[in-house]
Amino acid sequence: MTQTTTVVTPERFDRALSYADYLATIAVNRDQFQHYYDIARLTDDDVAFFTKTAALPSGPVKILVIAEAWCPDVFRGVPVFARIAEASGMTMKVVLRDENPDIMDEFLLKGKARAIPVAVFYTRGHQYITHWTERPAVAHAEIARIRAEFSAVHPTVDLKAPTGADMQTMKTFFDARLPQRYPAWQVETVREVRELLVAAMAAA
Amino acid sequence: MAGKVPIVYTIRGCEACVKLLEKWNADGIAYEERRAELSQATMEEARTYGSAVPIVVWPDGRVEQGFQGHIGCYII
User: Fold this and answer.
1) B25 found inside a domain
2) What is the domain count for chain A?
3) Using one digit for the tens of pLDDT, what is the confidence trace for B15-72?
4) Which domain holds residue B47?
5) Residue A76: which domain range?
6) Which CATH number covers residue A36?
7) Is the ipTM of this complex over 0.90?
8) Would B51 be classed as within a structural domain?
9) Cβ–Cβ < 8 Å for B68, A158
10) Using the beta-carbon criterion (under 8 Å), do B51 and A27 form an inter-chain contact?
């Protein structure tokens, strides 16, 4: 990824979809986007932080989100950024990952994975500030823990390539444990984004 | 659900899906591809079988998820 040269020009940002227009175009999971928007919450302190930060001379006023509507991390995470944008007055735009491979290539996770969503923050002058990818660290840790718990109970099931009844066994196991964590992951997303912005702007 | 050829649920941009289809195409395996991202009905259909694509439903009713050690893309 580079911040000095980028395919995300101001003109391309402007041409990207508004969140409302994005939602109007998606073929799947519209109810999921709505649900996770409904449960996404910013505290008063969050609202004050994002509003104050956006008002700084080199503060974030634009968010570019890379998304695909089929992706659970997208329909759980992007509504959080919609909330941040609404609360702070930032402009959020959305591009589709698979129709914008050059943009995705700038923000690959660990330089190789096309993980989404990606939320990129820019200044009023379209200078890159920071970006956030996929899901919060606590989500990665909790998924790993639950997978380990599953393997301890079902040692013969291949988690990467389950078949037949094992697929339903896995689904039942994970459905009983993961969804209850999603609201906390949204809160963690906000916390991580705040940390990223503070660190990036302190370094600027 | 089971027909004469395997049904494979995929998503555009899913690398494991692409690799599976490349292998099947090279091997001359006939299949019916159902793109889960194109309609809510197909998405829900895929979710009845598993949590990540590719998902293969063989004519004899066997169901498999993933491809060659790759989980693929989660859909729920």
Assistant:
1) yes
2) 1
3) 999 999 999 999 999 999 999 999 999 999 999 998 999 999 999 999 999 999 888 9
4) 7-66
5) 10-135
6) 3.40.30.10
7) yes
8) yes
9) no
10) no
pLDDT at A2: 44
Vertex A105: Cα angle to A95 and A100 (nearest 5): 30
Tell me the pLDDT tens digit for each residue of A88-134: 999 999 999 999 999 999 999 999 999 999 999 999 999 999 999 99
The count of other CB atoms within 10 Å of the CB of residue A142 is 18
Contact at CB, B39 and A27, closer than 8 angstroms: yes
A161 vs B contacts (CB less than 8 Å):
64-69, 71
Number of cross-chain residue pairs from A and B with Cβ atoms under 8 Å apart? 65
pTM score, whole prediction: 0.94
Residue A86: what residue type? Answer: E
Q: Which among A30, A160, A171 is the nearest to B66, CB-wise?
A: A160
- Amino acid identity for residue A21 in this structure: D
A142 found inside a domain: no
List the CATH number of the domain containing B62. Answer: 3.40.30.10
Per the domain annotation, does B72 fall within a domain? no
Residue ranges of E strands in A15-140: 17-18, 60-67, 91-96, 118-123, 128-133
Residue A28: closest C-alpha in chain B: B40
- Which residues from chain B sit within 8 angstroms of residue A174, using beta carbons? 51
Q: How many structural domains is chain B composed of? A: 1
